[in-house]
Specification:
Blueprint (H helix, E strand, L loop, with lengths): L9 H18 L3 H24 L13 H25 L5 H19 L4 H19 L3 H26 L4
Helix pairs in contact: 1-2, 2-4, 3-4, 4-5, 5-6
Amino acid sequence: VLLIRRSVWNFPVAMAMVSCIGIVLVEAKLYAEAGLQVFFFVVNAWGWWLWSRVRDEQSGVPVRWLSGPARFAWGIGTALFSVALGLSLSRWTDAALPMADSAVTGMSVAAQFLLSFRRIENWVLWVVIDAVSIALYVIRDLHLLAVLYVAFLVLSVIGLREWTRAYRGKPA
């Protein structure tokens, strides 16, 4: 909810949340996603710093879309990272679902950077990530985490709508 409203306070709350989720994911042997929580912690600290520098108390932080070439580059980079990570996990760990786990991880890395840069595409990625994560968690019998990600999916759809409205200058 804080992120949808473009509030800088999203970041410390997210740092606490990813710490808890990371522990659950290690126990489920979803190593890429567990490592991702460490990444999220660091990038949320960085995002908190970035957003604190541009915040407008009246309207939140400004947001925008990527250019077409930038969107293409982010897509290719995300795919390459995801495949490389998946192949590595397949070869060197006992990861439960290495390619699916790595796809979620790769997209999440991209989405988190795009969020820190205040790009609306982060929400498109979060919708996809949340949908895939729900299936992944159900398969691994992590039903409470799946329910949490259903809530995240709803929030991601709302976030996409609200940030698009903010970009167009309409009230949220």
